Amino acid sequence: MADDSTPPRPRVLVERHLPTPPAVRGSASLYLTEAARQGITPERKMLFIGQEPANEHVAAALRVETGAAVIARRKQFWADGVPVRIATSYFRLDVGEDTRLDGEGFVLPTLQAAIEDLGHTFGHAVEALTARPATPREADLLEIPGEWVVQILRVSISTDDVPVHALETICAASRHVFPIGQPDGTDQF
Predict the structure, then answer these.
(1) Is position 5 within any domain?
(2) How far is 31 from 29, CA to CA, in rounded Å?
(3) Which segments constitute the UbiC transcription regulator-associated domain (predicted)?
């Protein structure tokens, strides 16, 4: 039974721009940069760094077999003390094993710089957006029992046609809005 003397958690609505503007994507932290622009007090915590089997959609994105080992870097984000996102960066072993990409802590100055330091040049990216019910673990971490999430899978492909980074962001759907813009900044409807 809930304690009625506890005030309800304040509602938070954060923006996740699609496509991600290049200046934000290249910043030290996409989320910290977005939060600062929105006047939100951000927090982030690393949840897991290590190898795990690739699920079907991550395997397809990275062009590896389902169940193949990939490097995962999973973190959680809060806005004004409210959990809003879980983001996992995935790397093929031939891209990131025994590099800064599978090391402890946050990669500084950025993941993008670390990828470039390994000799990969960014070619293009594809972002896929899916709405679905939260898994039990997502619902627990985001404190959204019975709610839906929005899953964004962004795959960065090198100029050599190698998928070097898959970023899966799980957003609490009720706590996000997704402004859509044209890559060149000129919206047309």
Answers:
(1) no
(2) 5
(3) 37-177
C-alpha dihedral sign at 21, 72, 95, 58: negative
Average pLDDT, 10 consecutive residues per value, the chain (189 residues): 53 73 66 84 95 97 98 96 95 95 89 92 91 97 95 94 96 85 56
pLDDT of residue 30: 75
Query: What are the distances in angstroms from CA 173 to CA 113, 136, 139, 163?
Result: 30, 15, 11, 27
The answer to whether residue 161 is domain-embedded is yes
For residue 9, is it within any domain?
no
Enclosing domain of residue 53: 14-177
Q: How many domains does the chain have?
A: 1
Give 64's contacts (C-beta < 8 A, 6+ positions apart).
Answer: 54, 70, 92
CATH number of the domain within which 89 lies: 3.40.1410.10
DSSP reduced 3-state for 112: helix
Residue 6: inside a domain: no
Type of residue numbered 155: V
Q: Are strands 176-177 and 14-15 parallel, antiparallel or unpaired?
A: parallel
Strand order in the sheet with 42-53: 42-53, 69-79, 82-92, 163-172, 148-158, 122-133
pLDDT (0 to 100) of residue 188? 47
